[in-house]
Each structure stands twice: as C-alpha cells, then as structure tokens.
Amino acid sequence: MSVSAIAQNYAETLLLLAAQEGEEERYGELLGEISAVYRDVEDFRRFLDTPGVSQDDKERVLREALSGFAPEMFIRFLLVVLDKRRQRWLPAMDAAYRDLLDNRAGRLHATIRLSFEPDEALRAELVEALSEHFGAVVVPHFLEDDRILGGIVVRVGDRVMDGSLRRRLDDLRLTLTRSGFEASTL
Questions:
Q1: Who wins on pLDDT, 122 or 172?
Q2: 126 Cβ partners below 8 Å, 6+ apart?
Q3: Measured between alpha carbons, how far is residue 20 from residues 27, 73, 74, 170 in Å?
Q4: 125-149: per-residue pLDDT in tens?
Q5: Is the pLDDT of residue 41 over 60?
Q6: What pLDDT is stored for residue 125 in this prediction?
Q7: What average pLDDT does the segment 80-95 reach?
Q8: Contact 75, 65 (CB under 8 A)
Q9: So what's the pLDDT on residue 1?
Q10: Does residue 2 surpass a pLDDT of 90?
Q11: Range of weakest confidence among 1-5, 49-53, 68-72, 167-171
C-alpha cells in the first residue's frame, strides 16, 4: 500500500471520528499542529521514531502533552498512529485531511500568478470570478511572478489556465516559425 493510500485511509478515519463530535475543523487544526511539530522539531521526531524509546513512554508523553488541549478521541487516534508506527506519515495525513475537508466544504485552492502584487480590489474580483467559474468557494494563493510578463496564470489542482503574455508570445513565435518566418527577420 502506498504512502498516499495509507495517509488517505488515516485521514478518512480521523474525519469520521471528528464528525461524530462535530469537530472536523478542530481536528484538522490539531493534526496540522502535530504534523508541523513532527516535521519541524527534530528532537520530537527523533523521540517518536527511536525504537529505543518504549512505546509506553511515547504514549505517556503524548498523553501528558495533549491532555486538556485535545479531545480524547483525537489523542487515541494519535496513539494508534504511533502504535502502528505511522508517525512519519503525519504530514501526508494532514494534507489528505485538509483535502477531505475542502472537498466536503466545496472549497478549491487556486494558485494565482500575476506579474505584480494585486491590490485588495483585484484580489476580490479574481476570487469572485474564479468562484463563479468553478461553482465552488475558491481559496486563493497569490504569487508574484515577473517571468509571465503580464496577464494571469491560474492553477486549480491539475488544471492550468494560462492567460499570460509569456504564453501568448511563445504561441506567436511557434506560429511564425511554422509559417516559415524567422524571428530574426522581424
């Protein structure tokens, strides 16, 4: 079974548990925080990954750290992850869980590249247009990229809509080349 399939299975299980308590967003936040600590704090990662540290010690430390902060069901989920030695896939579980939440809420993430930093009015206009186009709530991620020269490039999942000046110039160059014109003669 692939890492992504394992992460997906755990994320789906956690979402079911969270839904029982009506805490889907909260569980996502907690998973994101634990995932970030595992990914970014080497001592924590080493503690959980080291076979020399007993399972009981790992569970005790996690319980103490999360008691009063996280719901018991979430803590038990983490203990199962740890017991099955799947902690190294926490970041992948986090990504899969976020995708599930977004799908459930009808949200799409869009990377929007412009050659300049857009003001708030343009941001709102672009988000509104994309939301209408896709029929979903668009969560924008704006990037400034002067390589596109002008226009816009939008990526949603595997779909790319390229309205950049760079692409148009490349298309024109290709058309002229196919027509027998040399770029140097222009």
A1: 122
A2: 112, 118, 140, 152
A3: 11, 10, 12, 53
A4: 999 999 999 999 999 999 999 888 8
A5: yes
A6: 95
A7: 94
A8: no
A9: 64
A10: no
A11: 1-5
DSSP 2-23: -HHHHHHHHHHHHHHHHHHHT-
Check if the beta carbon of residue 48 is closer than 8 Å to that of residue 38: yes
What is residue 109's three-state secondary structure? strand
- Model pTM above 0.85: no
- Tokens 């998973």 correspond to what residue? 31
The single-letter DSSP state of residue 136 is S
Q: Which amino acid is at 156?
A: V
List the chain domain ranges: 3-103, 108-185
The CB-side HSE value for 31 (13 A sphere, CA atoms) comes to 35
Are 128 and 108 spatial neighbours (Cβ–Cβ below 8 Å)?
A: no
- Give Cα 29 to chain centroid, integer Å: 13
One-letter amino acid at 167 equals R
Question: Going by C-beta distance under 8 Å and a sequence separation of 6 or more, which residues neighbour residue 116?
Answer: 144
Cα end-to-end span (Å), the chain: 57
For residue 98, which amino acid is it?
A: R
| Angle of the 72-83 helix axis to the 55-66 helix axis, nearest 10 | 160
What φ, ψ does residue 30 adopt, rounded to 5°? -65, -45
Q: What is the pLDDT of residues 110-127, one digit of tens each?
A: 999 999 999 999 999 999
C-beta separation of 79 from 59 below 8 A: yes
For 3-103, CATH gives 1.10.520.20
